[in-house]
Amino acid sequence: MEVPDVDSLWRDGSRASQVYFISGGHKPVNLHQWGPGVRDVYALHYIIHGQGTLETDGQYFRLGAGESFIIFPQKEIYYYPDPADPWEYVWMEFSGRDAERFIELTQLSVQHPALPAAPECLEPLFHLAWNAGTSPCEVLRADARLRLLLSYYMEFFPSEKQEEARDYVWLAITYIEQNYWKSSLTVAEIVQAVNLERSYLFRRFKEATGESVSAYIAACRIRRACELLKSSRLSIQSVAYSVGYNDPLYFSRVFRKATSHTPSAYVMLYQKQAER
Fold first, then answer.
1. What are the record keywords, sorted (predicted)?
2. Which residue among 15, 64, 149, 256 has its CA within the 20 to 30 Å range from the CA of 98?
3. Cβ atoms within 10 A of the Cβ of 143, count?
């Protein structure tokens, strides 16, 4: 049996995190400089102390302790320390199809690749990912730690796009699809999870989906029940419990109202269609 290597196992688009850790490190105080040149990855730097300069697109960014800068893929840059007070910094390199989207949720951009001092020290978050080895579990942990680091940059330096990206209807739908199996799921719980005024959410939800929140919950449960009835050999009782109904008889009534078939009749109908 051929065993896939770690890289193909964890970097494959169908399985991998869409943003993944590549490498990281610590540069102690010295006169190291880099560039001018380009990289093919993102490289986020955090300055521990000292000073230095980043040059890109004819702009000069003078940076010091607590501040950050990022290298964008294929963007020419040149950075170097202050001879009188050379910087010490940590960095993390990453890539992935979602990397650009994550960075867009911060104030970092090609035009503004530097950030002011963070409200708290971020150095420990960089160190977290460096202990990654090559085993699948270690690679996965490194990716998770990268996401943790980026989440702090999103929190401390949020872009205007963050609020634009906050689609409350999408959040409500996602919450429903992740929790439909709970018999205790209520509209009030969804409102609290989305953190939006109840009537405003209801209005936006209706406009976007054409259904009320409660109707969407019921429809989500029935859709999943249909999938289970077609793809598994679960009993009607097990299907009912799996989609949030503790009473199989009540589930059967709801299912029949929604599909015009009892669960048993639905299974038979599907089997006949599959045999044709």
1. DNA-binding, Transcription, Transcription regulation
2. 64
3. 21
